[in-house]
Design a protein that fits this description.
Layout lengths: L15 H32 L3 H28 L2 H24 L6 H26 L5 H49 L23 H17 L1 H20 L3 H8 L8 H22 L4 H21 L3 H28 L6 H27 L4 H18 L21
Helix pairs in contact: 1-2, 1-4, 1-5, 2-4, 2-12, 3-4, 3-5, 4-12, 5-9, 5-11, 7-12, 7-13, 9-11, 10-11, 10-13
């Protein structure tokens, strides 16, 4: 007898927390992209295109990641996670409105605070979000949940720049900031559907936490490092993540050279390799959501690393446009599998009480490794053939795949167990 349609519905779609966090992510991404591009375009206009002022925008957006991610992770483990996230979203909205008021008063330099304050607050809300994810999502559904979040990120990677540019060009900086603040507020409101924090489950409110005890902070900070290093799985995942960052950073600045040197085309042809990459990101997000329901996260991660290695090598060795486009599409198509598989495994093998610190420690690994290699790419380009640089990046992905090889036969729950998993 045929089963009712509702019975065949994937269980993760019925998870109240996942629905709430996905809605929150949509609004948060909308606010972030409109803010980033409106601020960038406004600074370029007011500074007359001054490179130092434009660079300061990037500093305001990325510096907090390194300065506050680990601190934010410590506090995420001490504070009640739901309250922390909602408070951070409201504070982000309030800070943007404060900058808008300062702009109306005539101080345009206050615009840098819009990016800085929101970026700092995100380093507290993100690890708290992972803590809630651990608490409310069954382990067998973590990979598909992460893939859904990656899909949202992919959509905004494509649509975000256009939305931010349109908001600034059509409405101006004041209205763009108001839209940004409204998006952050809607993100906070969306989280109202998340079950309230249970004080008995651990965590304190920000007001109750002994934040003024630096010795205790440093102890908890060190506990996070020791916890990560003592776990074989977390250590291997973190090392693999850092190696991926090195591979990405090595080729990130080389797209223009790929078009002009390897393909022998004018620089304007760069769009023909960015279009398939964007399409691959969008399609890949939905594909990985399907895959995450069928294969274990460690195999999802391995598949993403393998396909990316092949795609990077094909892109760098190609001398024809169609093969280069195919390589770019393949890279983007399975890139979400790397992030979704890695994040799901990290949460499956981390106790809830340590999720904030482990997340806070791991967050800068990819970005730090990537930025380090990006800073060296120009020098390496002067001494290495372009094709060799791409092959080297592909080899780094193969190394990352080898690092996680011991996890392929891990006993982590597989998606087939999702029907037996109960929602917390």
């Amino acid at each position: 007898m045929p089963q009712p349609r509702e019975a065949n519905r994937p269980s993760w779609l019925s998870n109240r927390y996942l629905r709430a966090v996905l809605a929150s992510a949509v609004f948060a991404q909308l606010g972030i992209w409109i803010r980033n591009f409106a601020v960038l375009l406004y600074v370029m206009e007011r500074s007359g295109g001054d490179a130092g002022a434009v660079a300061l925008v990037s500093v305001a957006e990325y510096a907090p990641l390194f300065l506050f991610s680990i601190i934010g992770g410590v506090f995420a483990d001490r504070w009640r996670p739901r309250r922390t996230i909602v408070l951070c979203e409201w504070l982000s909205a309030g800070s943007v409105l404060g900058v808008w008021i300062a702009l109306r008063a005539g101080d345009w330099h206050a615009i840098f605070l819009a990016a800085l304050v929101s970026a700092i607050l995100s380093q507290f809300s993100q690890p708290a979000g992972m803590k809630l994810f651990k608490r409310h999502v069954p382990e067998a559904e973590m990979a598909v949940g992460m893939a859904a979040i990656q899909t949202i990120f992919a959509v905004f990677m494509i649509a975000g720049p256009a939305l931010g540019t349109f908001a600034y060009a059509r409405f101006g900086i004041g209205a763009a900031l108001v839209i940004t603040a409204s998006a952050f507020a809607l993100s906070a409101i969306s989280l109202a559907a998340v079950p309230r924090d249970d004080a008995s489950a651990g965590g304190h409110s920000p007001a109750d936490s002994p934040a003024g005890d630096p010795s205790r902070l440093s102890t908890q900070f060190a506990d996070g490092f020791r916890y990560l290093l003592k776990s074989r799985v977390l250590s291997l995942l973190s090392l693999s993540f850092a190696v991926v960052g090195l591979g990405v950073g090595l080729i990130q600045p080389l797209g223009a050279f790929l078009v002009t040197e390897r393909l022998g085309l004018p620089l304007g042809a760069l769009q023909w390799i960015t279009i398939p990459y964007g399409a691959g990101e969008l399609i890949g997000g939905f594909l990985v959501m399907k895959l995450a329901m069928k294969i274990a996260p460690q195999r999802l991660l391995a598949l993403g690393l393998l396909v990316n290695a092949v795609g990077i090598a094909a892109t760098g060795l190609s001398t024809t446009l169609w093969l280069c486009m195919a390589g770019q599409f393949a890279i983007a198509l399975l890139q979400p599998a790397i992030f979704a598989g890695n994040a799901a495994l990290t949460m499956q093998h981390t106790e809830e009480r340590m999720i904030g610190r482990v997340t806070g420690i791991r967050t800068p690994l990819l970005t730090g490794a990537m930025l380090t290699m990006m800073s060296l790419a120009g020098t390496l380009k002067a001494h290495m053939p372009l094709a060799l640089m791409y092959v080297s990046a592909a080899l780094l992905f193969v190394i990352a795949l080898g690092v996680i090889a011991p996890l392929w036969r891990s006993s982590a729950p597989s998606p087939s167990a999702s029907n037996a998993a109960s929602h917390r």
